[in-house]
Amino acid sequence: MKLSDLLHTVKEFAYGLFVLDPLLTIVRMRYHLDLMFMSILYSDTLGVPIIPPIYRLNLLKYYYPMLDKWKIELLKEKDITDKMRG
User: Is 53 a residue whose pLDDT tops 70?
Assistant: First the structure.
């Protein structure tokens, strides 16, 4: 093994040890916050208006591309093992 290969392996190990878990946690939190915001944004379709329509229309252009993912996430069957996985 060359020294550069060893250094590369050590860098990957340090990345996985110190950076990967917080990064995945941040990505997971962002995903859940986006789902929550989508639920608030489309709450009028569920019959519970939370925010006024004018603000909803302003935000709709940013969250419309995520509409299909949101529907799939809401209709997906959930189990206790999903929470255990993270």
Answer: yes
